[in-house]
Amino acid sequence: MHKPMLLALAPMKDVTDLAFIKTLNDLNSLPDYFITEYFRTVAHHKKMDPYIMRSIDENPTGRPIYGQLVGQEPEHLVRDALNLMNHACAGVDLNMGCPAPIVCRRGAGGGMLRSLRAMDSALGALRDSLPAGGFSVKCRLGYETPDEFERILPVIARHAPDRVCIHARTVREGYRSPVHPEWVKWAVETLKCPVIANGNIVDTQTAEAWVRLAAPAGLMAGRTALRNPWIFSQLRAHFRGEAATAPTFRDLLRYIRSLYKHTLEMQDHYVEEKHIHRMKKYLVYTARGLPEEFDHHMKRAKTSRDFMHICEEILDNDTPFPSTPPEDTHLFAHFNALLTQEKACLPAGIQL
Ligand SMILES: Cc1cc2nc3c(=O)[nH]c(=O)nc-3n(C[C@H](O)[C@H](O)[C@H](O)COP(=O)(O)O)c2cc1C
Question: With a cut of 0.90, is the ipTM above it?
Fold first, then answer.
């Protein structure tokens, strides 16, 4: 049996919204905490995205949610952080990992990793403005190469965030490379606060590999939660030494119906095309490991009727849903590297 493991849903733009959070609630598969998709902090724009704010204001789960900011200027980050703290959020998370060129060019998100001085100022300003327990950081290992983390981590440590989540890749590595657990292990040994490991958790075995290699305080899962929303209840059962639920295609149909309902509720003025478009954004992940016809027909559905008809045709049966996605897709790749890595060895010169 393991020590208790914190579980988190990774923030994901346009998909881990209130509709998805409500769906996890319906399925009784909740992480210990949430982080919103990022709010862009920009100088001239004080009003914060009302769509994202709904996941804080209407969070039905009883689990804490942190508002995430992506930005660069300390003054504006603090302005938006204080605004967030006027809502029912548990704290503020600074995004230091987003690889989108438009974000990085401004020195925000992953771009912040290229300037230790800018990072230092932003972290310092947020730490000074947020209460104890209310400031977390989500970062990558570096911009170009993982060994940049050797210089980045001390800057983070200096500002004593309350929790640090590490997506164990560089910005250049995007989302499809193997992850680098050795650097997370180093952070676990170095920082005083809890460290959460993120990247390539697709099932209980990959989660277990993270624990074996880096011994983090918690695990954060993103894409896999869209594919298999039961991942949180499965991980919790696994770490307690209990049997995990094994969903069938019919359970998936239940998931899709719940998501369909909550996505519909999010629309102020119903536009069928918009609704179906959003459903497809979530379900491309779910399609991995389902018969190919699901992906083919689902992507081509134009009306809600067609969309639900396809889901029912293929999923209304007791076929077991594979617990692990195929590894060779553009959405899930290289996760087996976690299973085959025996030890997390740091490069020479780094002392634990
Ligand atoms: C579509 C998409 C949107 C994302 N949006 C965000 C975001 O808003 N904020 C953030 O910190 N990370 C974002 N990420 C990164 C995820 O939080 C996570 O770090 C990454 O997907 C690796 O975890 P995973 O392998 O469990 O998916 C996004 C990732 C994807 C695939």
Answer: yes
